[in-house]
What does this fold into?
Amino acid sequence: MKIKTPGKKDSLAKIVGANIKGHRLTCGLTQHDLAQTLGIEVETMSRYERGHIAPPIEQIGRIATILGVAPATLFVSDQEDVRSQGLVLAEQMRQLSEEDVKTIAKIVKTYVDAHSSK
It folds into this structure.
């Protein structure tokens, strides 16, 4: 299933909503599951995901914890600056072992050293 990624002109509520939905689906949760865990109505969760209303800031923190992501990742649009992808990569790396993180760091350093302009 293809999820619409919000563009630069989308409201912050739409960006947050699209990110909540994307991460929820990645976790294999239904709107009902997430709403129940948060103690809110399914319709409220639906309105969050559609960007009709924005979750309160304390709710953002709870949602992020349940979805296993940093709260800041819920505010980043796919259409934003490439550097913002660092948040996504950091989140993905948090799920790896310390040894795997060290391996990836070596790979990135090797790549940067080989491709950076001197």
Q: What stands out?
A: The mean pLDDT is 86. The two ends are 43 Å apart (CA to CA).
